[in-house]
Amino acid sequence: MVDRADLQVVARQLGREPRGVLEVAYRCPNGEPGVVKTAPKLPDGTPFPTLYYLTHPVLTAAASRLETTGLMREMTHRLRCDSGLAAAYRRAHESYLAERDAIEPLGTSVSAGGMPDRVKCLHVLIAHSLAKGAGVNPLGDEAVALLAADPAAAGLIVGSSGDEWIGKKDCGNRLRYQLDSPVDRGGDRRPPARCASRNADCPVGSGVDATGELAPDAISRTRAALTDYAALLRLHRVERVRMVATSATRDAANRDAFFAMTAEVLGAVIPGSVAEVISGAEEAELSFRGAVGELDSAGAPFVVVDLGGGSTEIVLGKADNEVVASYSADIGCVRLTERCLHSDPPTAPEVAAAREVVRERLAVALQVVPVEAARTWVGLAGTMTTLSALAHNMAAYDAAAIHLSRVPGMSCWPCVSGW
């Protein structure tokens, strides 16, 4: 039974009598209703598929402003490009349907808000995320994070005070960029919510091993990807951004031109922003910290292997993120391909040559990193995720299923032993 006082508040919020309200599903920090849960059919029998309805006028106005920014189009585009995001969004759709049908089936597979294939109403997604909490509807969570950054709406979002937006980019042989919010300025160390994440195919390291320079085409493609990301920075009013460049730029003679380009593109949004080249040791430490953050500490010590395009980092560390030993080897899938694997498929002599290079580099790495001390091995990057997909016989790549998946030591061998 809904409290009569709550219904009166909702009526004032909506400017009309609410219909079919089952409960207040979300309260703002000030105690006012923000989202109501409604019956699948109104009292007059009219179907009403929107299970969670955004009622607070400040939140609805903020959601409407978001809808004018092109965010829904950008989210829909990401659903087509990111299989992991699409899978999580579909699970939100299925959860929404199951919860609604448990009250009263409507005989339809349509949920609300455009789920599961597109985004057509942010009000619905925001209401869903506010009602169910973070982790159920990924795009709803992103939109809620944006409301938390809106001065007009921030006070009505639980846990939103003192937040800022953080943009991150990792530029190795591919460019990955990510937008997270919120990070609390007051010392709260909760994990940030993922707002946007993309990979761009910018072969920054292509040809560096042979020529010692970044190719003009690689710099141009990186500029195009950064320009796309800069639009996201403007859209979400990002306050800080960090772009790190790794193996390819460490080795390139013309890296100054690359950094000048990043300063031009990023600096136009956030003055003074520019990519920074990090050492192999720092790359190893960052890889380790990112990899073990979600792991059970009982599995420590960990060895993290980050097999990139131009280099491979091998790191031994403890559960508290302390790195015990690390080594950055100048071998990676792009560098090895350019150096040894010139045929498609590679010939037996080419494979033998590649194996010899790997053995030589690993022999040095294993003198530095005592991997035998590890209880758990963790693999990062595309080669590792591909091996996991092969080991689990995936017909289609599913990022959500691969993340934190376990691969028995020899389960990949039948897939690759012929190479």
What does this 3D model show about the protein?
By secondary structure, the protein is α/β, with parallel strands linked by helices. The protein folds into three domains: about 5-155, no CATH class; about 165-275, 2-Layer Sandwich (Nucleotidyltransferase, domain 5), CATH 3.30.420.40; about 290-380, 2-Layer Sandwich (Nucleotidyltransferase, domain 5). It has 16 helices and twelve strands. It has helices at about 5-15, 55-65, 70-80, 85-105, 120-130, 140-150, 210, 215-235, 245-250, 255-265, 280-290, 335-340, 350-370, 380-390, 400, 415, and strands at about 20-25, 35-40, 50-55, 165-170, 175-185, 195-200, 240-245, 275, 300-305, 310-315, 325-330, 375-380. Strands 6-5-4-7-8 form a five-stranded mixed sheet. It has a four-stranded mixed sheet with strand order 11-10-9-12, with helices on both faces. A hairpin with a 5-residue loop joins strand 1 (about 20-25) and strand 2 (about 35-40). Helix 3 (about 70-80) crosses helix 4 (about 85-105), helix 5 packs across helix 6 and helix 12 (about 335-340) packs across helix 13. The chain starts with a helix and ends with a helix. Mean pLDDT is about 80; it is low at about 160-165 and about 180-190.
Task: Provide the fold topology.
Blueprint: H1 4-14, E1 21-27, E2 33-38, E3 52-54, H2 57-67, H3 71-81, H4 83-103, H5 122-132, H6 138-148, E4 163-171, E5 175-184, E6 193-200, H7 208-211, H8 216-235, E7 240-245, H9 247-251, H10 255-267, E8 276-277, H11 280-292, E9 302-307, E10 312-317, E11 323-329, H12 333-340, H13 348-368, E12 376-380, H14 381-391, H15 399-402, H16 413-416
Parallel strand pairs: 4-7, 7-8, 9-12
Antiparallel strand pairs: 1-2, 2-3, 4-5, 5-6, 9-10, 10-11
Helix pairs in contact: 3-4, 5-6, 8-10, 12-13
